[in-house]
Protein backbone atom coordinates (compact mmCIF):
# COMPACT_ATOMS: atom_id res chain seq x y z
CA UNK A 1 0.00 0.00 0.00
CA UNK A 2 1.45 3.41 -0.98
CA UNK A 3 2.58 5.98 1.58
CA UNK A 4 0.19 8.43 -0.07
CA UNK A 5 -2.74 6.19 0.83
CA UNK A 6 -1.41 5.74 4.36
CA UNK A 7 -1.13 9.49 4.97
CA UNK A 8 -4.57 10.17 3.62
CA UNK A 9 -6.06 7.31 5.66
CA UNK A 10 -4.41 8.61 8.83
CA UNK A 11 -5.83 12.04 8.09
CA UNK A 12 -9.32 10.52 7.90
CA UNK A 13 -8.78 8.58 11.16
CA UNK A 14 -7.77 11.79 12.95
CA UNK A 15 -10.77 13.67 11.53
CA UNK A 16 -13.10 10.87 12.61
CA UNK A 17 -11.60 10.81 16.13
CA UNK A 18 -11.91 14.58 16.52
CA UNK A 19 -15.66 14.32 15.94
CA UNK A 20 -15.96 11.99 18.96
CA UNK A 21 -15.75 8.27 19.86
CA UNK A 22 -16.16 5.92 16.90
CA UNK A 23 -16.59 2.20 16.38
CA UNK A 24 -14.70 -0.02 13.96
CA UNK A 25 -17.77 -0.23 11.72
CA UNK A 26 -18.17 3.56 11.67
CA UNK A 27 -14.52 4.00 10.69
CA UNK A 28 -14.81 1.41 7.91
CA UNK A 29 -17.91 3.14 6.62
CA UNK A 30 -16.10 6.50 6.56
CA UNK A 31 -13.06 5.02 4.85
CA UNK A 32 -15.21 3.27 2.26
CA UNK A 33 -16.97 6.55 1.48
CA UNK A 34 -13.63 8.36 1.13
CA UNK A 35 -12.24 5.52 -0.99
CA UNK A 36 -15.03 6.04 -3.52
CA UNK A 37 -14.67 9.81 -3.37
CA UNK A 38 -10.86 9.91 -3.75
CA UNK A 39 -10.51 6.82 -5.95
CA UNK A 40 -8.20 5.26 -3.33
CA UNK A 41 -8.32 1.96 -1.50
CA UNK A 42 -8.44 3.10 2.14
CA UNK A 43 -10.08 0.04 3.69
CA UNK A 44 -7.85 -1.72 6.23
CA UNK A 45 -7.67 -4.54 8.76
CA UNK A 46 -7.68 -4.00 12.52
CA UNK A 47 -3.99 -4.89 12.52
CA UNK A 48 -3.28 -2.06 10.08
CA UNK A 49 -5.42 0.29 12.16
CA UNK A 50 -3.31 -0.47 15.23
CA UNK A 51 -0.20 0.33 13.19
CA UNK A 52 -1.79 3.57 11.99
CA UNK A 53 -2.70 4.58 15.56
CA UNK A 54 0.89 4.00 16.65
CA UNK A 55 2.22 6.15 13.78
CA UNK A 56 -0.33 8.88 14.53
CA UNK A 57 0.90 8.96 18.13
CA UNK A 58 4.57 9.05 17.11
CA UNK A 59 4.17 11.65 14.36
CA UNK A 60 1.42 13.88 15.69
CA UNK A 61 1.26 13.27 19.45
CA UNK A 62 -2.39 12.27 19.22
CA UNK A 63 -3.23 9.18 21.28
CA UNK A 64 -6.30 7.30 20.02
CA UNK A 65 -7.17 4.32 22.21
CA UNK A 66 -9.75 1.53 22.24
CA UNK A 67 -12.22 1.73 25.13
CA UNK A 68 -13.43 -1.78 25.97
CA UNK A 69 -16.37 -0.50 28.05
CA UNK A 70 -17.97 1.35 25.14
CA UNK A 71 -16.41 -0.80 22.39
CA UNK A 72 -15.21 2.35 20.64
CA UNK A 73 -12.06 4.30 19.86
CA UNK A 74 -11.52 7.72 21.39
CA UNK A 75 -8.82 10.38 21.85
CA UNK A 76 -6.98 10.27 25.18
CA UNK A 77 -7.13 14.03 25.71
CA UNK A 78 -5.13 14.05 28.95
CA UNK A 79 -2.09 12.27 27.50
CA UNK A 80 -2.19 13.67 23.97
CA UNK A 81 -0.02 16.61 22.98
CA UNK A 82 -0.97 17.53 19.43
CA UNK A 83 1.88 18.62 17.21
CA UNK A 84 2.68 18.80 13.52
CA UNK A 85 -1.02 18.54 12.59
CA UNK A 86 -0.35 21.41 10.19
CA UNK A 87 1.60 18.85 8.13
CA UNK A 88 -1.59 16.88 7.60
CA UNK A 89 -3.42 20.10 6.71
CA UNK A 90 -0.72 20.82 4.13
CA UNK A 91 -1.09 17.30 2.77
CA UNK A 92 -4.83 17.83 2.38
CA UNK A 93 -4.13 21.10 0.56
CA UNK A 94 -1.82 19.23 -1.82
CA UNK A 95 -4.61 16.77 -2.51
CA UNK A 96 -6.91 19.71 -3.24
CA UNK A 97 -4.33 21.05 -5.71
CA UNK A 98 -4.28 17.69 -7.47
CA UNK A 99 -8.03 17.75 -7.90
CA UNK A 100 -7.97 21.44 -8.90
CA UNK A 101 -5.73 20.56 -11.84
CA UNK A 102 -8.65 18.55 -13.19
CA UNK A 103 -11.05 21.45 -12.58
CA UNK A 104 -9.28 24.26 -14.35
CA UNK A 105 -11.31 27.47 -14.21
CA UNK A 106 -13.37 26.19 -11.26
CA UNK A 107 -10.97 26.38 -8.31
CA UNK A 108 -8.87 29.47 -7.62
CA UNK A 109 -5.98 29.55 -5.14
CA UNK A 110 -4.12 32.65 -4.00
CA UNK A 111 -1.01 33.17 -6.07
CA UNK A 112 1.95 33.11 -3.69
CA UNK A 113 5.54 34.04 -4.38
CA UNK A 114 8.42 31.83 -3.29
CA UNK A 115 9.16 32.51 0.37
CA UNK A 116 12.63 31.02 0.81
CA UNK A 117 11.33 27.60 1.82
CA UNK A 118 14.31 25.99 0.06
CA UNK A 119 16.39 27.17 3.02
CA UNK A 120 14.27 25.45 5.66
CA UNK A 121 16.16 22.15 5.50
CA UNK A 122 19.72 23.53 5.86
CA UNK A 123 18.61 25.91 8.61
CA UNK A 124 16.98 23.06 10.52
CA UNK A 125 20.22 21.09 10.16
CA UNK A 126 22.20 24.06 11.52
CA UNK A 127 19.81 24.38 14.49
CA UNK A 128 20.05 20.67 15.27
CA UNK A 129 23.84 20.54 14.96
CA UNK A 130 24.57 24.00 16.46
CA UNK A 131 26.30 25.16 13.29
CA UNK A 132 26.86 28.52 11.63
CA UNK A 133 25.21 29.62 8.39
CA UNK A 134 26.57 32.29 6.06
CA UNK A 135 23.76 34.08 4.24
CA UNK A 136 23.61 36.76 1.60
CA UNK A 137 20.82 38.88 3.03
CA UNK A 138 18.95 41.78 1.43
CA UNK A 139 17.16 44.35 3.55
CA UNK A 140 14.08 45.86 1.92
CA UNK A 141 14.99 49.40 2.89
CA UNK A 142 18.63 49.25 1.66
CA UNK A 143 18.12 47.59 -1.74
CA UNK A 144 21.50 45.91 -1.42
CA UNK A 145 22.67 42.64 0.08
CA UNK A 146 25.26 41.86 2.74
CA UNK A 147 26.91 38.71 4.05
CA UNK A 148 25.76 37.76 7.55
CA UNK A 149 27.16 35.07 9.85
CA UNK A 150 24.30 33.61 11.89
CA UNK A 151 23.81 30.95 14.56
CA UNK A 152 20.16 29.94 14.09
CA UNK A 153 18.10 28.71 17.05
CA UNK A 154 14.49 28.70 15.81
CA UNK A 155 12.14 29.05 12.83
CA UNK A 156 8.78 30.80 12.88
CA UNK A 157 6.07 31.32 10.27
CA UNK A 158 3.97 34.49 10.22
CA UNK A 159 1.59 35.68 7.48
CA UNK A 160 2.82 33.08 4.96
CA UNK A 161 6.46 34.03 5.47
CA UNK A 162 9.18 32.09 7.28
CA UNK A 163 11.66 33.75 9.63
CA UNK A 164 14.79 32.39 11.29
CA UNK A 165 15.70 33.58 14.78
CA UNK A 166 19.47 33.67 15.08
CA UNK A 167 22.37 35.00 17.12
CA UNK A 168 24.59 37.44 15.23
CA UNK A 169 28.39 37.80 15.59
CA UNK A 170 27.68 40.50 18.21
CA UNK A 171 25.60 38.01 20.24
CA UNK A 172 22.41 39.90 19.39
CA UNK A 173 19.22 37.94 18.78
CA UNK A 174 17.34 38.95 15.62
CA UNK A 175 14.83 37.64 13.07
CA UNK A 176 15.71 37.26 9.40
CA UNK A 177 13.14 36.67 6.66
CA UNK A 178 13.88 33.63 4.53
CA UNK A 179 12.39 35.39 1.50
CA UNK A 180 15.22 37.95 1.74
CA UNK A 181 18.01 35.37 1.74
CA UNK A 182 19.75 35.28 -1.66
CA UNK A 183 22.11 32.42 -0.86
CA UNK A 184 23.01 30.24 2.10
CA UNK A 185 26.12 28.26 3.03
CA UNK A 186 26.24 25.80 5.91
CA UNK A 187 29.52 25.91 7.85
CA UNK A 188 30.22 22.46 9.38
CA UNK A 189 31.40 22.29 12.97
CA UNK A 190 29.64 22.76 16.29
CA UNK A 191 29.84 26.28 17.76
CA UNK A 192 28.96 27.88 21.07
CA UNK A 193 25.34 29.08 21.26
CA UNK A 194 24.27 31.56 23.98
CA UNK A 195 21.44 30.37 26.25
CA UNK A 196 18.14 30.71 24.38
CA UNK A 197 15.15 32.50 25.92
CA UNK A 198 11.89 30.67 26.54
CA UNK A 199 10.76 30.89 22.92
CA UNK A 200 7.21 29.62 23.42
CA UNK A 201 6.58 32.30 26.07
CA UNK A 202 8.34 34.90 23.95
CA UNK A 203 6.16 34.21 20.90
CA UNK A 204 3.02 34.11 23.05
CA UNK A 205 3.65 37.66 24.26
CA UNK A 206 3.16 39.29 20.87
CA UNK A 207 1.36 39.25 17.57
CA UNK A 208 3.92 38.72 14.82
CA UNK A 209 7.63 38.20 15.40
CA UNK A 210 8.89 41.42 17.03
CA UNK A 211 9.17 41.26 20.82
CA UNK A 212 10.57 44.45 22.33
CA UNK A 213 12.12 43.59 25.69
CA UNK A 214 11.41 47.17 26.88
CA UNK A 215 7.65 46.67 26.44
CA UNK A 216 5.47 44.88 28.99
CA UNK A 217 2.56 42.54 28.37
CA UNK A 218 -0.75 44.40 28.74
CA UNK A 219 -4.44 43.55 28.73
CA UNK A 220 -5.94 44.76 25.45
CA UNK A 221 -9.74 44.95 25.27
CA UNK A 222 -11.46 45.18 21.88
CA UNK A 223 -15.15 45.38 20.96
CA UNK A 224 -16.44 44.10 17.61
CA UNK A 225 -19.77 44.34 15.84
CA UNK A 226 -21.96 41.25 16.02
CA UNK A 227 -21.15 40.32 12.41
CA UNK A 228 -17.39 40.78 12.72
CA UNK A 229 -17.53 39.04 16.08
CA UNK A 230 -18.54 35.78 14.39
CA UNK A 231 -15.33 35.91 12.36
CA UNK A 232 -13.21 36.73 15.41
CA UNK A 233 -14.67 33.77 17.32
CA UNK A 234 -13.95 31.38 14.47
CA UNK A 235 -10.46 32.82 13.77
CA UNK A 236 -9.03 34.14 17.08
CA UNK A 237 -6.60 37.03 16.83
CA UNK A 238 -4.21 35.50 19.36
CA UNK A 239 -3.97 32.37 21.55
CA UNK A 240 -4.62 34.49 24.67
CA UNK A 241 -7.99 35.69 23.33
CA UNK A 242 -10.76 35.55 25.93
CA UNK A 243 -14.44 36.42 25.37
CA UNK A 244 -15.72 39.01 27.84
CA UNK A 245 -19.11 39.83 26.28
CA UNK A 246 -21.05 37.97 23.60
CA UNK A 247 -24.66 39.11 23.84
CA UNK A 248 -25.77 38.89 20.20
CA UNK A 249 -25.09 42.60 19.63
CA UNK A 250 -21.36 42.90 20.24
CA UNK A 251 -18.36 40.72 20.94
CA UNK A 252 -15.88 42.03 23.48
CA UNK A 253 -12.58 40.21 23.86
CA UNK A 254 -9.35 40.59 25.80
CA UNK A 255 -5.79 39.79 24.73
CA UNK A 256 -2.61 39.58 26.84
CA UNK A 257 0.05 40.94 24.49
CA UNK A 258 2.67 43.61 24.02
CA UNK A 259 1.58 46.61 21.98
CA UNK A 260 3.45 46.59 18.66
CA UNK A 261 3.10 47.47 14.99
CA UNK A 262 1.50 44.13 14.12
CA UNK A 263 -1.23 44.53 16.77
CA UNK A 264 -2.12 47.99 15.49
CA UNK A 265 -2.17 46.70 11.90
CA UNK A 266 -4.56 43.91 12.86
CA UNK A 267 -6.88 46.37 14.59
CA UNK A 268 -6.88 48.76 11.61
CA UNK A 269 -7.61 45.87 9.24
CA UNK A 270 -11.09 45.55 10.79
CA UNK A 271 -12.02 49.16 9.94
CA UNK A 272 -15.06 50.61 11.69
CA UNK A 273 -16.19 47.21 12.99
CA UNK A 274 -13.78 47.31 15.93
CA UNK A 275 -13.31 49.66 18.88
CA UNK A 276 -10.33 49.81 21.23
CA UNK A 277 -11.53 49.87 24.84
CA UNK A 278 -8.22 49.45 26.69
CA UNK A 279 -5.49 50.51 27.23
CA UNK A 280 -5.78 54.25 26.67
CA UNK A 281 -2.40 54.60 24.97
CA UNK A 282 -3.38 51.99 22.38
CA UNK A 283 -6.54 54.03 21.64
CA UNK A 284 -4.39 57.06 20.92
CA UNK A 285 -1.94 55.11 18.76
CA UNK A 286 -4.76 53.69 16.62
CA UNK A 287 -6.37 57.15 16.33
CA UNK A 288 -3.07 58.62 15.20
CA UNK A 289 -2.58 55.93 12.57
CA UNK A 290 -6.12 56.38 11.26
CA UNK A 291 -5.59 60.15 11.10
CA UNK A 292 -2.34 59.72 9.20
CA UNK A 293 -4.12 57.47 6.69
CA UNK A 294 -6.75 60.14 6.05
CA UNK A 295 -4.16 62.92 5.73
CA UNK A 296 -1.58 60.96 3.76
CA UNK A 297 -0.04 62.97 0.92
CA UNK A 298 1.39 59.96 -0.91
CA UNK A 299 0.95 60.41 -4.65
Can you lay out the helices and strands and say which pair or pack?
Blueprint: H1 3-18, H2 24-38, H3 46-60, E1 64-67, E2 72-75, H4 85-100, H5 120-129, E3 132-138, E4 145-158, E5 161-167, E6 173-177, E7 181-187, H6 199-204, E8 218-225, H7 226-234, E9 242-246, E10 250-257, H8 261-269, E11 274-278, H9 280-295
Antiparallel strand pairs: 1-2, 3-4, 3-7, 4-5, 5-6, 8-10, 8-11, 9-10
Helix pairs in contact: 1-2
Q: How many individual helices?
A: 9
User: What overall form do the CA principal axes indicate?
Assistant: globular
Percent of residues in helices comes to 25-40%
Main sheet, how many strands, which sense, barrel? 5 strands, antiparallel
Query: Whole-number average pLDDT?
Result: 86
Enter the CATH topology name of the largest domain: Arc Repressor Mutant, subunit A
Structural overview:
The protein is an alpha+beta fold. It has three domains: 3-100, Arc Repressor Mutant, subunit A (Orthogonal Bundle), CATH 1.10.10; 117-196, SH3 type barrels; 218-295, 2-Layer Sandwich (Alpha-Beta Plaits), CATH 3.30.70. It is built from nine helices and eleven strands. The protein has a five-stranded antiparallel β-sheet. Strands 9-10-8-11 form a four-stranded antiparallel β-sheet. A two-stranded antiparallel sheet has the order 1-2. A hairpin with a 5-residue loop joins strand 5 and strand 6. Helix 1 (3-18) crosses helix 2. It is globular and about 65 Å long. The mean pLDDT is 86.
Amino acid sequence: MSKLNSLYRQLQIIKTAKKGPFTWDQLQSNLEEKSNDKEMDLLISKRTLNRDLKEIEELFGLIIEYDFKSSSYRINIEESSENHLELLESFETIQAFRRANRLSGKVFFEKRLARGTEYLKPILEAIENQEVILVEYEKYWLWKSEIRELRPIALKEYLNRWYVMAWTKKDELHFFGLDRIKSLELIPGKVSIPPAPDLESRFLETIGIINNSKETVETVVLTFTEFKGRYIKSMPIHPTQQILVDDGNILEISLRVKINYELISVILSHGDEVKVEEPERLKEMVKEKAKNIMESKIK
